[in-house]
Design brief:
Strand order of the largest sheet: 7-6-5-4-3-2-1-8
CATH superfamily of the largest domain: Aldolase class I
Structural class: alpha/beta
Strand content: 15-25%
CATH architecture of the largest domain: Alpha-Beta Barrel
Radius of gyration: 21 Å
Order of helices and strands: EHHEHEHEHEHEHEHEHHEEEEEEEE
Helix content: 10-25%
Shape: globular
C-alpha cells in the first residue's frame, strides 16, 4: 500500500527533458542506491515526458520509443524493482502531453491497464492540451477511477499546476499528491514565488493528498533543462527545508550521477528528513514577523509531540526573526520550555525567556526539531 508520507525519489525532467533513455534511467537508479539516497527514502525513479513514440499504434496503444527504451518499459520496471526501487511514468489528461506526445484523453482505462502490466508504481498526470469543453476535475476523476481498478497500487500524482481551483476538487479524484503551482526553474525567484503561493493553500495538503510544490532543483547549479541562473547553496538549503517543512514530495531533479557532496548533504539532512517523513502528516501553519511575508515562520506539530519550527528569510537583507513559544502552544505558565537541534548544523537550541530568535542572512533559513520539556 502507498504510505501516508509524501513520496521521495528522482525525476528525469528538470535536467534531461527529452534527452532520456534506458541507460540514463538505470544508471541514475544505481546511483540512488550506491550513494545512500535510497536508504534515506528516495525510492521512486520517474520517467517524465518524451518517453513514447509521437503517435499511438494502430490498436490505440502507447508505444515506448524503441531507440530510447529498446527493451520496453517492463524491462525498466523489473530492473528498478530488483534494486528495491519503484518505477514512475508520465502521461497527461489532454490530447497531447506538454511536449506534444500522445496523452491519455479518452484512453484512460487502456493506459491504466498498460501501466499496471508494465509494473508502474507512480503516474505523474499533467494538464496540457486539456479540452475546454471538459472540466479538469472530471478528467482527473476518470483517470483516478481507472487506476484504482487497474489491479496495481499506483500512486496518482495530479499535476494541474493549481489551475481551475485544483485545491477545491483534487481530493475527490483519488490523487495522492497534487501540484499547486506552475513549473519550478533553477532560480531564486522561482523558489521564493512557490513558497509564497503556499500561504493561502496550506489547509489543503496533508495525509491522503499531499501538496506538491514541484520537483527539487537542489544541486542543479544552472545546468540542465530548467537550469537557467542556478542558486547558491544557502538558497538550495532554504528551498529543501521549505519543501520538508510543508510536507511536499521530495523528487530530486539534478543529475544524481554527478552531484557534489554539498548537494548530498542537503538532500540527506537527518533533521529535515525526520520532519518531511513524519508519520502524522499534520498540516503546517505560519506567522509573518512584522506582517512582512518575506520574513516567514512555519510550524508543524510532529507525531511524537515534538514541534518543527522553521525561520525563513526570503528578503534581500538580513533580519533577526523571533517567535514566542506561547504562539505555538507552550506558554510560560505551563512550566514547559523548548529545546532541540538545528537542521544542517546540528547545533543545540533552546528558547530563552520564552522566545526563539535567530539572525538570518538574506535568502537563508534556520529549522529546528524541538522538544517540549520541563523547565
Amino acid at each position: 500500500m502507498i504510505k501516508n508520507i509524501p513520496p521521495m525519489g528522482w525525476n528525469t525532467w528538470n535536467t534531461f527533458a527529452e534527452k532520456i533513455n534506458e541507460e540514463l534511467v538505470l544508471s541514475s537508479a544505481e546511483q540512488l542506491v550506491s550513494s545512500g539516497l535510497k536508504k534515506v527514502g528516495y525510492e521512486y525513479v520517474v520517467i517524465d515526458d518524451c518517453w513514447s513514440l509521437r503517435e499511438r499504434d494502430r490498436s490505440g496503444a502507447l508505444v515506448p520509443d524503441p531507440e530510447k527504451f529498446p527493451h520496453g518499459m517492463k524491462y525498466v520496471a523489473d530492473a528498478l524493482h530488483k534494486m528495491g526501487l519503484k518505477f514512475g511514468m508520465y502521461s497527461c489528461c489532454g490530447g497531447m502531453t506538454c511536449a506534444s506526445y500522445p496523452a491519455s484523453l479518452n484512453h484512460e482505462y487502456a493506459d491504466a491497464r498498460a501501466f499496471a502490466r508494465w509494473g508502474v508504481d507512480y503516474l505523474k498526470y499533467d494538464y496540457c492540451f486539456k479540452p475546454s469543453s471538459v472540466d479538469g476535475k472530471a478528467l482527473y476523476r476518470r483517470m483516478g477511477t481507472a487506476l484504482s481498478g487497474c489491479g496495481r497500487d499506483i500512486l496518482f500524482s495530479g499535476c494541474s499546476w493549481g489551475s481551475d481551483n485544483t485545491h477545491e476538487w483534487i481530493g475527490t479524484t483519488g490523487a495522492n499528491i497534487w501540484r499547486s503551482t506552475g513549473d519550478i526553474v533553477d532560480t531564486w525567484d522561482s523558489v521564493k514565488s512557490i513558497i509564497k503561493q503556499q500561504y493561502a493553500i496550506l489547509p489543503y495538503g496533508g495525509v491522503g493528498c499531499f501538496n506538491d510544490m514541484d520537483m527539487l532543483i537542489v544541486g542543479m547549479h544552472g545546468k540542465g533543462h530548467v537550469g537557467l541562473k542556478g542558486c547558491t547553496d544557502d538558497e538550495y538549503r532554504l528551498h529543501f527545508a521549505a519543501w520538508c517543512m510543508l510536507a511536499s514530495p521530495l523528487m530530486i531533479g539534478c543529475d544524481v550521477r554527478n552531484m557534489d557532496e554539498t548537494t548530498k548533504e542537503i538532500l540527506t539532512d537527518p533533521v529535515l528528513l525526520s520532519i518531511a517523513k513524519d508519520e502524522r502528516g499534520n498540516r503546517p501553519y505560519f506567522f509573518h514577523n512584522w506582517n512582512n511575508d518575506d520574513w516567514t515562520i512555519f510550524v508543524r506539530l510532529l507525531a511524537n509531540g515534538d514541534i518543527a519550527v522553521g525561520f525563513f528569510n526570503l528578503s534581500d537583507s538580513g533580519v533577526d526573526l523571533w517567535l514566542s513559544a506561547d504562539d505555538i502552544g507552550v506558554p510560560d505558565f505551563s512550566g514547559k520550555t523548548l529545546s532541540g537541534v538545528e537542521a544542517y548544523s546540528g547545533a543545540s537550541v533552546r528558547a530563552v525567556n520564552g522566545v526563539l530568535s535567530k539572525e538570518l542572512a538574506p535568502h537563508s533559513c534556520a529549522v529546528w526539531r524541538l522538544q517540549v520539556k520541563n523547565k
